[in-house]
From TrEMBL:
This is DUF6993 domain-containing protein. Residues 76-158 form the DUF6993 domain. Residues 1-43 form the signal peptide. It comes from the Bacteria. The keyword Signal applies. Residues 47-59 have a biased composition (Low complexity). It comes from Arthrobacter bambusae.
Amino acid sequence: MSRGTTPGGKTTGTANIRGAALSLAVAVTVALAGCTSSTGSTAQPGTIPAPSTAAQPTAPVDPAVAATSETVETTLKNLVAGNPKPDQEALRSALVSAGIPKANVEVSVSRTPTGLDVDALEAAALTGESCVMGQIRDGGVLVTVLPVLATGKCFVGDAR
């Protein structure tokens, strides 16, 4: 009589547990094998592949958008140099003085409804089908270009 069987040849609970453990081990091995790459990649786990050196196609830059981006960035940097936390009207006035039409300028509020300063002040200059977005946060300036919204505006909601 072998271990794990009764005199009548029936298996005991120990043999069932071993069989279940073996089945589980096989299932886990098969499942993990399915997670490996079959593309022949030689990258080691935890490494980041090097970026492609092939030229990436880029959309042509609209000269008007490029000029407006430069104007917004220069204007915001000059404004922040004198006051790291300008208010809404100072930002609007600076952009209009820099040559951006007043009708094309949108500026976010500079104070919350409870009277606190906002964390970031944002402005947008509508240029064709693009919005040149500028942000002032902690005395720093960030400028990016986004598409115009379906409303024809750059901001969602009331910019007051």
